[in-house]
Known about the structure:
This protein is α/β, with parallel strands linked by helices and about 400 residues long. It is built from 17 helices and 15 strands. It has an eight-stranded mixed beta sheet with strand order 5-4-3-6-7-8-9-10, sandwiched between helices. It has a five-stranded parallel beta sheet with strand order 11-15-14-12-13. A two-stranded antiparallel sheet has the order 1-2. Helix 3 (about 50-60) packs parallel to helix 4 (about 95-105) and helix 3 (about 50-60) runs parallel beside helix 9. The site of adenosine-5'-triphosphate has 22 residues, from helix 8.
Amino acid sequence: METTGHGEYPKLHLEDYPRYGRQMILDDFGLEGQLKLQRSSVVVIGAGGLGCPALQYLAAAGVGRIGIVDHDKVELSNLQRQVLHNEGTIGVHKSVSAADAIHKLNSRIQIDAVTDPLHSSNAVALLQPYDVILDCTDNAPTRYLLSDTAVSLGKPLVSGAAQKFEGQLCVYNLGEDGPCYRCIFPNPPAMEMVGTCEETGVLGAVTGVVGTMQALEAIKIITGLHDGKASLLLFSALTMPFFRSIKLRAKKPTCTSCGEGGMKLGAIEETDYVAFCGGLRPNWEERGLSAGHPGSRIRAQELKTALESGTKVTLIDVRPRTEFGICRLPGFKNIPLTQVLANPASHLSEDKNSRVLVVCRLGNDSQIAADAFRDLGSNIIVQDLIGGLRAWSRDVDPHFPIY
Ligand SMILES: Nc1ncnc2c1ncn2[C@@H]1O[C@H](COP(=O)(O)OP(=O)(O)OP(=O)(O)O)[C@@H](O)[C@H]1O
Protein backbone atom coordinates (compact mmCIF):
# COMPACT_ATOMS: atom_id res chain seq x y z
CA MET A 1 0.00 0.00 0.00
CA GLU A 2 1.42 3.39 -1.02
CA THR A 3 0.53 6.56 0.85
CA THR A 4 0.42 10.02 -0.69
CA GLY A 5 -0.88 13.28 0.63
CA HIS A 6 -4.25 12.47 -0.99
CA GLY A 7 -4.84 8.95 0.30
CA GLU A 8 -3.68 5.31 0.05
CA TYR A 9 -3.24 3.47 -3.25
CA PRO A 10 -2.33 -0.20 -3.55
CA LYS A 11 0.21 -1.13 -6.25
CA LEU A 12 -2.15 -1.32 -9.19
CA HIS A 13 -1.17 0.72 -12.20
CA LEU A 14 -3.37 3.78 -12.74
CA GLU A 15 -4.41 2.42 -16.15
CA ASP A 16 -5.66 -0.77 -14.50
CA TYR A 17 -8.44 0.96 -12.58
CA PRO A 18 -10.59 1.70 -15.64
CA ARG A 19 -9.47 -1.54 -17.33
CA TYR A 20 -10.65 -3.80 -14.50
CA GLY A 21 -13.20 -1.44 -12.91
CA ARG A 22 -16.27 -3.48 -13.98
CA GLN A 23 -15.09 -6.52 -12.05
CA MET A 24 -13.47 -4.62 -9.17
CA ILE A 25 -16.82 -3.06 -8.22
CA LEU A 26 -18.33 -6.52 -7.69
CA ASP A 27 -18.99 -7.40 -4.07
CA ASP A 28 -16.63 -10.16 -2.88
CA PHE A 29 -14.20 -9.31 -5.70
CA GLY A 30 -13.03 -5.74 -5.14
CA LEU A 31 -9.52 -4.40 -5.42
CA GLU A 32 -8.29 -7.35 -3.40
CA GLY A 33 -9.60 -9.77 -6.06
CA GLN A 34 -7.80 -7.83 -8.78
CA LEU A 35 -4.53 -7.87 -6.86
CA LYS A 36 -4.87 -11.63 -6.39
CA LEU A 37 -5.31 -12.06 -10.14
CA GLN A 38 -2.35 -9.78 -10.85
CA ARG A 39 -0.10 -11.85 -8.59
CA SER A 40 -1.36 -15.17 -9.92
CA SER A 41 -0.25 -17.42 -12.73
CA VAL A 42 -2.16 -19.89 -14.89
CA VAL A 43 -0.86 -22.36 -17.46
CA VAL A 44 -3.08 -23.48 -20.33
CA ILE A 45 -2.22 -26.73 -22.06
CA GLY A 46 -3.70 -26.72 -25.56
CA ALA A 47 -4.38 -23.49 -27.48
CA GLY A 48 -7.21 -25.06 -29.48
CA GLY A 49 -11.00 -24.93 -29.20
CA LEU A 50 -11.06 -24.79 -25.40
CA GLY A 51 -7.76 -23.03 -24.83
CA CYS A 52 -8.52 -20.01 -27.04
CA PRO A 53 -11.62 -18.74 -25.20
CA ALA A 54 -10.05 -19.65 -21.85
CA LEU A 55 -6.91 -17.65 -22.65
CA GLN A 56 -8.93 -14.71 -23.89
CA TYR A 57 -10.86 -14.33 -20.61
CA LEU A 58 -7.85 -15.02 -18.39
CA ALA A 59 -5.85 -12.32 -20.17
CA ALA A 60 -8.74 -9.86 -20.23
CA ALA A 61 -9.33 -10.38 -16.50
CA GLY A 62 -5.70 -9.53 -15.72
CA VAL A 63 -4.12 -12.81 -14.62
CA GLY A 64 -0.52 -11.65 -14.10
CA ARG A 65 1.29 -14.49 -15.81
CA ILE A 66 -0.10 -16.88 -18.40
CA GLY A 67 1.70 -19.90 -19.86
CA ILE A 68 0.56 -21.45 -23.15
CA VAL A 69 1.78 -24.94 -24.10
CA ASP A 70 0.97 -26.34 -27.55
CA HIS A 71 3.22 -27.94 -30.16
CA ASP A 72 0.71 -27.82 -33.01
CA LYS A 73 0.49 -25.24 -35.79
CA VAL A 74 -2.63 -23.36 -36.88
CA GLU A 75 -4.60 -24.90 -39.77
CA LEU A 76 -7.57 -23.59 -41.73
CA SER A 77 -9.80 -26.24 -40.16
CA ASN A 78 -9.03 -24.80 -36.69
CA LEU A 79 -10.52 -21.35 -37.35
CA GLN A 80 -14.12 -22.50 -36.95
CA ARG A 81 -13.57 -22.63 -33.17
CA GLN A 82 -10.03 -21.65 -32.21
CA VAL A 83 -10.92 -17.99 -32.03
CA LEU A 84 -7.53 -16.47 -31.17
CA HIS A 85 -6.03 -17.64 -34.46
CA ASN A 86 -6.79 -16.13 -37.86
CA GLU A 87 -6.10 -16.59 -41.57
CA GLY A 88 -2.84 -14.71 -41.18
CA THR A 89 -1.49 -17.11 -38.53
CA ILE A 90 -2.07 -20.34 -40.47
CA GLY A 91 1.18 -22.30 -40.21
CA VAL A 92 2.28 -20.45 -37.06
CA HIS A 93 2.65 -22.36 -33.76
CA LYS A 94 -0.65 -22.12 -31.90
CA SER A 95 1.06 -21.11 -28.66
CA VAL A 96 2.78 -18.21 -30.45
CA SER A 97 -0.35 -17.18 -32.38
CA ALA A 98 -2.42 -17.25 -29.16
CA ALA A 99 0.27 -15.39 -27.22
CA ASP A 100 0.32 -12.61 -29.85
CA ALA A 101 -3.47 -12.34 -29.79
CA ILE A 102 -3.76 -12.04 -26.01
CA HIS A 103 -0.80 -9.67 -25.88
CA LYS A 104 -2.80 -7.35 -28.15
CA LEU A 105 -5.69 -7.68 -25.73
CA ASN A 106 -3.62 -7.03 -22.61
CA SER A 107 -0.01 -5.95 -22.96
CA ARG A 108 0.40 -5.50 -19.21
CA ILE A 109 0.61 -9.21 -18.35
CA GLN A 110 3.44 -11.72 -18.75
CA ILE A 111 2.86 -14.39 -21.40
CA ASP A 112 5.04 -17.47 -21.90
CA ALA A 113 4.59 -19.48 -25.12
CA VAL A 114 5.95 -23.04 -25.25
CA THR A 115 6.10 -24.82 -28.62
CA ASP A 116 7.03 -28.27 -27.24
CA PRO A 117 4.39 -30.89 -26.54
CA LEU A 118 3.74 -31.61 -22.88
CA HIS A 119 5.06 -35.09 -22.09
CA SER A 120 6.10 -37.03 -19.03
CA SER A 121 9.69 -35.79 -19.03
CA ASN A 122 8.90 -32.05 -19.18
CA ALA A 123 5.53 -31.84 -17.40
CA VAL A 124 6.81 -31.15 -13.88
CA ALA A 125 9.24 -28.45 -15.00
CA LEU A 126 6.69 -26.77 -17.30
CA LEU A 127 3.82 -26.71 -14.81
CA GLN A 128 5.74 -26.01 -11.60
CA PRO A 129 5.87 -22.18 -11.94
CA TYR A 130 2.09 -21.75 -12.17
CA ASP A 131 -0.69 -21.65 -9.56
CA VAL A 132 -3.51 -23.16 -11.62
CA ILE A 133 -3.41 -25.63 -14.52
CA LEU A 134 -6.00 -25.72 -17.34
CA ASP A 135 -6.39 -28.91 -19.34
CA CYS A 136 -7.61 -27.77 -22.76
CA THR A 137 -6.28 -30.80 -24.65
CA ASP A 138 -8.08 -33.51 -26.54
CA ASN A 139 -6.47 -36.82 -25.66
CA ALA A 140 -6.48 -39.31 -22.80
CA PRO A 141 -2.70 -39.72 -22.29
CA THR A 142 -2.29 -35.97 -21.75
CA ARG A 143 -5.27 -35.89 -19.37
CA TYR A 144 -3.73 -38.56 -17.12
CA LEU A 145 -0.31 -36.94 -17.32
CA LEU A 146 -1.75 -33.54 -16.39
CA SER A 147 -3.73 -34.97 -13.49
CA ASP A 148 -0.79 -36.91 -12.05
CA THR A 149 1.44 -33.85 -12.34
CA ALA A 150 -1.16 -31.56 -10.76
CA VAL A 151 -1.49 -34.02 -7.84
CA SER A 152 2.27 -34.28 -7.37
CA LEU A 153 2.68 -30.50 -7.44
CA GLY A 154 -0.42 -29.90 -5.28
CA LYS A 155 -2.10 -27.61 -7.83
CA PRO A 156 -5.75 -27.41 -8.92
CA LEU A 157 -6.51 -28.70 -12.41
CA VAL A 158 -9.41 -27.22 -14.34
CA SER A 159 -10.32 -29.77 -16.96
CA GLY A 160 -12.55 -29.24 -19.99
CA ALA A 161 -13.73 -31.45 -22.82
CA ALA A 162 -15.97 -30.85 -25.84
CA GLN A 163 -17.17 -33.03 -28.65
CA LYS A 164 -20.07 -32.84 -31.08
CA PHE A 165 -22.77 -30.84 -29.23
CA GLU A 166 -21.58 -31.70 -25.72
CA GLY A 167 -19.08 -30.59 -23.15
CA GLN A 168 -17.77 -31.39 -19.68
CA LEU A 169 -16.11 -29.33 -17.00
CA CYS A 170 -14.51 -30.35 -13.72
CA VAL A 171 -12.01 -28.96 -11.22
CA TYR A 172 -9.75 -31.71 -9.92
CA ASN A 173 -7.39 -31.75 -6.97
CA LEU A 174 -8.98 -28.73 -5.35
CA GLY A 175 -8.17 -28.20 -1.67
CA GLU A 176 -7.44 -31.01 0.79
CA ASP A 177 -10.14 -33.44 -0.32
CA GLY A 178 -10.78 -32.72 -3.97
CA PRO A 179 -10.67 -35.87 -6.12
CA CYS A 180 -8.20 -36.17 -8.99
CA TYR A 181 -8.96 -37.32 -12.54
CA ARG A 182 -7.87 -40.88 -11.67
CA CYS A 183 -10.28 -41.00 -8.69
CA ILE A 184 -13.14 -40.51 -11.14
CA PHE A 185 -11.69 -42.29 -14.16
CA PRO A 186 -9.24 -44.92 -12.82
CA ASN A 187 -9.10 -46.65 -16.20
CA PRO A 188 -8.65 -45.02 -19.59
CA PRO A 189 -11.55 -45.20 -22.02
CA ALA A 190 -11.59 -47.96 -24.63
CA MET A 191 -9.96 -46.86 -27.88
CA GLU A 192 -13.24 -47.03 -29.82
CA MET A 193 -14.84 -44.66 -27.28
CA VAL A 194 -12.37 -41.84 -27.84
CA GLY A 195 -12.12 -39.57 -30.81
CA THR A 196 -10.70 -36.13 -31.49
CA CYS A 197 -12.75 -33.25 -32.84
CA GLU A 198 -11.19 -34.10 -36.19
CA GLU A 199 -12.84 -37.52 -36.08
CA THR A 200 -16.15 -36.78 -34.38
CA GLY A 201 -16.78 -33.10 -35.13
CA VAL A 202 -17.69 -30.30 -32.73
CA LEU A 203 -19.72 -27.12 -32.85
CA GLY A 204 -17.39 -24.16 -32.27
CA ALA A 205 -19.66 -22.42 -29.80
CA VAL A 206 -19.67 -25.56 -27.62
CA THR A 207 -15.91 -25.30 -27.10
CA GLY A 208 -16.47 -21.58 -26.46
CA VAL A 209 -18.90 -22.33 -23.62
CA VAL A 210 -16.64 -24.89 -21.95
CA GLY A 211 -13.38 -22.95 -22.41
CA THR A 212 -14.99 -19.81 -21.02
CA MET A 213 -16.17 -21.74 -17.97
CA GLN A 214 -12.63 -23.08 -17.47
CA ALA A 215 -11.38 -19.49 -17.27
CA LEU A 216 -14.20 -18.68 -14.87
CA GLU A 217 -13.31 -21.56 -12.56
CA ALA A 218 -9.64 -20.50 -12.56
CA ILE A 219 -10.60 -16.90 -11.73
CA LYS A 220 -12.87 -18.12 -8.90
CA ILE A 221 -10.12 -20.33 -7.46
CA ILE A 222 -7.55 -17.50 -7.55
CA THR A 223 -9.82 -14.86 -6.05
CA GLY A 224 -11.28 -17.14 -3.36
CA LEU A 225 -14.79 -17.15 -4.90
CA HIS A 226 -14.84 -20.91 -5.51
CA ASP A 227 -16.94 -22.88 -3.04
CA GLY A 228 -14.41 -25.74 -3.13
CA LYS A 229 -17.09 -28.36 -3.92
CA ALA A 230 -16.20 -30.94 -6.53
CA SER A 231 -18.71 -31.58 -9.27
CA LEU A 232 -18.72 -32.71 -12.86
CA LEU A 233 -20.68 -30.33 -15.06
CA LEU A 234 -22.27 -31.76 -18.18
CA PHE A 235 -23.33 -29.46 -21.01
CA SER A 236 -25.56 -30.46 -23.88
CA ALA A 237 -26.30 -27.84 -26.51
CA LEU A 238 -29.35 -29.66 -27.83
CA THR A 239 -31.28 -30.15 -24.61
CA MET A 240 -32.82 -27.62 -22.27
CA PRO A 241 -31.71 -26.89 -19.64
CA PHE A 242 -28.20 -26.96 -21.10
CA PHE A 243 -26.50 -28.02 -17.86
CA ARG A 244 -26.56 -30.95 -15.44
CA SER A 245 -24.11 -31.47 -12.66
CA ILE A 246 -23.00 -34.55 -10.77
CA LYS A 247 -21.68 -34.14 -7.24
CA LEU A 248 -18.35 -35.89 -6.86
CA ARG A 249 -17.13 -37.73 -3.77
CA ALA A 250 -13.96 -36.68 -1.95
CA LYS A 251 -10.70 -38.20 -3.15
CA LYS A 252 -10.29 -41.95 -2.84
CA PRO A 253 -7.75 -43.20 -0.29
CA THR A 254 -7.07 -46.08 -2.70
CA CYS A 255 -6.43 -43.85 -5.72
CA THR A 256 -3.18 -44.80 -7.43
CA SER A 257 -2.36 -41.13 -7.96
CA CYS A 258 -3.65 -39.01 -5.05
CA GLY A 259 -4.40 -41.79 -2.52
CA GLU A 260 -2.21 -42.90 0.36
CA GLY A 261 1.07 -44.10 -1.08
CA GLY A 262 0.05 -42.64 -4.47
CA MET A 263 2.27 -41.49 -7.29
CA LYS A 264 5.48 -39.62 -6.54
CA LEU A 265 6.99 -36.91 -8.72
CA GLY A 266 9.71 -39.20 -10.06
CA ALA A 267 7.17 -41.80 -11.17
CA ILE A 268 5.62 -39.44 -13.71
CA GLU A 269 8.76 -39.41 -15.83
CA GLU A 270 8.83 -43.18 -15.90
CA THR A 271 5.20 -43.59 -16.88
CA ASP A 272 4.33 -44.31 -20.52
CA TYR A 273 0.96 -42.55 -20.69
CA VAL A 274 0.32 -43.50 -24.31
CA ALA A 275 0.80 -47.19 -23.51
CA PHE A 276 -1.39 -46.85 -20.40
CA CYS A 277 -4.18 -45.48 -22.61
CA GLY A 278 -3.93 -48.39 -25.00
CA GLY A 279 -1.55 -46.82 -27.53
CA LEU A 280 -2.49 -45.12 -30.74
CA ARG A 281 -3.59 -47.00 -33.78
CA PRO A 282 -0.58 -46.39 -36.00
CA ASN A 283 -1.02 -45.62 -39.67
CA TRP A 284 2.15 -47.56 -40.48
CA GLU A 285 1.81 -47.55 -44.24
CA GLU A 286 1.56 -43.75 -44.35
CA ARG A 287 5.07 -43.79 -42.96
CA GLY A 288 6.29 -46.37 -45.46
CA LEU A 289 6.34 -49.27 -42.98
CA SER A 290 4.85 -52.70 -43.55
CA ALA A 291 1.22 -53.50 -42.81
CA GLY A 292 -0.16 -56.11 -40.40
CA HIS A 293 -2.03 -57.94 -43.19
CA PRO A 294 0.14 -57.95 -46.32
CA GLY A 295 -1.69 -56.28 -49.19
CA SER A 296 -4.57 -55.31 -46.96
CA ARG A 297 -4.25 -51.61 -47.57
CA ILE A 298 -3.94 -49.59 -50.75
CA ARG A 299 -2.79 -46.10 -51.54
CA ALA A 300 -4.94 -43.48 -53.22
CA GLN A 301 -3.19 -43.95 -56.60
CA GLU A 302 -3.86 -47.71 -56.45
CA LEU A 303 -7.51 -47.04 -55.69
CA LYS A 304 -7.66 -44.79 -58.75
CA THR A 305 -6.19 -47.57 -60.92
CA ALA A 306 -8.64 -50.08 -59.48
CA LEU A 307 -11.60 -47.79 -60.14
CA GLU A 308 -10.47 -47.12 -63.71
CA SER A 309 -9.73 -50.78 -64.53
CA GLY A 310 -13.40 -51.65 -64.82
CA THR A 311 -13.01 -54.90 -62.83
CA LYS A 312 -15.92 -55.79 -60.56
CA VAL A 313 -15.21 -54.45 -57.11
CA THR A 314 -17.55 -53.75 -54.20
CA LEU A 315 -16.99 -50.20 -53.02
CA ILE A 316 -17.94 -49.31 -49.44
CA ASP A 317 -17.69 -45.94 -47.72
CA VAL A 318 -18.00 -46.41 -43.93
CA ARG A 319 -18.36 -42.75 -42.96
CA PRO A 320 -21.48 -41.64 -41.08
CA ARG A 321 -24.42 -40.68 -43.33
CA THR A 322 -23.96 -36.95 -42.66
CA GLU A 323 -20.39 -37.06 -43.92
CA PHE A 324 -21.33 -39.15 -46.94
CA GLY A 325 -23.82 -36.35 -47.70
CA ILE A 326 -20.99 -33.79 -47.80
CA CYS A 327 -19.01 -35.47 -50.58
CA ARG A 328 -18.51 -38.96 -52.01
CA LEU A 329 -16.68 -40.90 -54.67
CA PRO A 330 -18.85 -42.31 -57.49
CA GLY A 331 -19.83 -45.96 -57.21
CA PHE A 332 -19.44 -46.22 -53.44
CA LYS A 333 -22.33 -47.32 -51.25
CA ASN A 334 -22.56 -45.92 -47.76
CA ILE A 335 -22.54 -48.43 -44.90
CA PRO A 336 -21.58 -46.51 -41.74
CA LEU A 337 -19.02 -48.24 -39.51
CA THR A 338 -21.58 -48.84 -36.74
CA GLN A 339 -23.71 -50.84 -39.17
CA VAL A 340 -20.73 -52.79 -40.47
CA LEU A 341 -19.71 -53.75 -36.94
CA ALA A 342 -23.27 -54.65 -35.90
CA ASN A 343 -23.47 -57.32 -38.60
CA PRO A 344 -20.56 -57.51 -41.05
CA ALA A 345 -21.81 -60.68 -42.73
CA SER A 346 -25.08 -59.07 -43.83
CA HIS A 347 -23.23 -56.55 -45.97
CA LEU A 348 -21.14 -59.08 -47.88
CA SER A 349 -23.53 -62.00 -48.05
CA GLU A 350 -25.11 -61.06 -51.37
CA ASP A 351 -21.79 -60.08 -52.79
CA LYS A 352 -20.49 -62.01 -55.75
CA ASN A 353 -17.42 -59.83 -56.15
CA SER A 354 -14.21 -61.23 -54.79
CA ARG A 355 -12.73 -57.85 -53.95
CA VAL A 356 -14.00 -55.22 -51.54
CA LEU A 357 -12.54 -51.74 -51.19
CA VAL A 358 -13.34 -49.76 -48.07
CA VAL A 359 -12.82 -46.02 -47.55
CA CYS A 360 -13.44 -43.52 -44.77
CA ARG A 361 -12.27 -39.97 -44.11
CA LEU A 362 -8.90 -40.47 -42.44
CA GLY A 363 -8.09 -44.16 -42.85
CA ASN A 364 -8.85 -45.31 -39.30
CA ASP A 365 -12.48 -46.47 -39.44
CA SER A 366 -11.88 -48.19 -42.77
CA GLN A 367 -9.23 -50.37 -41.09
CA ILE A 368 -11.67 -51.40 -38.40
CA ALA A 369 -14.37 -52.20 -40.95
CA ALA A 370 -11.93 -54.12 -43.17
CA ASP A 371 -10.80 -56.17 -40.15
CA ALA A 372 -14.43 -57.00 -39.36
CA PHE A 373 -15.05 -58.18 -42.95
CA ARG A 374 -11.84 -60.20 -42.92
CA ASP A 375 -12.76 -61.85 -39.63
CA LEU A 376 -15.67 -63.49 -41.47
CA GLY A 377 -13.02 -65.73 -42.98
CA SER A 378 -14.41 -65.74 -46.54
CA ASN A 379 -12.26 -65.78 -49.68
CA ILE A 380 -13.07 -62.20 -50.47
CA ILE A 381 -10.07 -59.84 -50.61
CA VAL A 382 -10.73 -56.81 -48.44
CA GLN A 383 -8.58 -53.71 -48.76
CA ASP A 384 -8.91 -50.22 -47.35
CA LEU A 385 -7.57 -46.83 -48.33
CA ILE A 386 -4.48 -45.59 -46.49
CA GLY A 387 -5.05 -42.05 -45.25
CA GLY A 388 -8.72 -42.15 -46.30
CA LEU A 389 -10.41 -39.66 -48.61
CA ARG A 390 -8.06 -36.99 -47.33
CA ALA A 391 -5.24 -38.88 -49.08
CA TRP A 392 -7.42 -39.15 -52.20
CA SER A 393 -7.80 -35.38 -52.24
CA ARG A 394 -4.10 -34.84 -51.61
CA ASP A 395 -2.68 -37.43 -54.02
CA VAL A 396 -5.28 -37.94 -56.76
CA ASP A 397 -7.93 -35.25 -57.02
CA PRO A 398 -7.25 -31.86 -55.40
CA HIS A 399 -10.83 -30.84 -56.27
CA PHE A 400 -12.25 -33.51 -53.97
CA PRO A 401 -13.29 -31.59 -50.82
CA ILE A 402 -11.50 -32.29 -47.56
CA TYR A 403 -13.03 -31.36 -44.25
N1 LIG B 1 0.48 -33.19 -24.92
C1 LIG B 1 0.14 -32.02 -25.45
N2 LIG B 1 0.96 -30.97 -25.35
C2 LIG B 1 0.63 -29.77 -25.89
N3 LIG B 1 -0.51 -29.55 -26.56
C3 LIG B 1 -1.37 -30.58 -26.69
C4 LIG B 1 -1.09 -31.86 -26.15
N4 LIG B 1 -2.12 -32.68 -26.46
C5 LIG B 1 -3.01 -31.93 -27.17
N5 LIG B 1 -2.56 -30.68 -27.31
C6 LIG B 1 -3.20 -29.56 -28.02
O1 LIG B 1 -4.52 -29.39 -27.57
C7 LIG B 1 -5.26 -28.73 -28.59
C8 LIG B 1 -6.64 -29.31 -28.61
O2 LIG B 1 -7.39 -28.54 -29.49
P1 LIG B 1 -8.61 -29.09 -30.30
O3 LIG B 1 -9.29 -30.16 -29.54
O4 LIG B 1 -9.45 -27.92 -30.69
O5 LIG B 1 -7.99 -29.89 -31.50
P2 LIG B 1 -7.07 -29.77 -32.75
O6 LIG B 1 -6.09 -30.85 -32.60
O7 LIG B 1 -6.54 -28.42 -33.04
O8 LIG B 1 -8.14 -30.00 -33.88
P3 LIG B 1 -8.49 -31.19 -34.81
O9 LIG B 1 -8.79 -32.37 -33.90
O10 LIG B 1 -9.68 -30.71 -35.55
O11 LIG B 1 -7.28 -31.37 -35.67
C9 LIG B 1 -4.52 -28.91 -29.89
O12 LIG B 1 -4.06 -27.67 -30.34
C10 LIG B 1 -3.38 -29.84 -29.52
O13 LIG B 1 -2.18 -29.58 -30.23
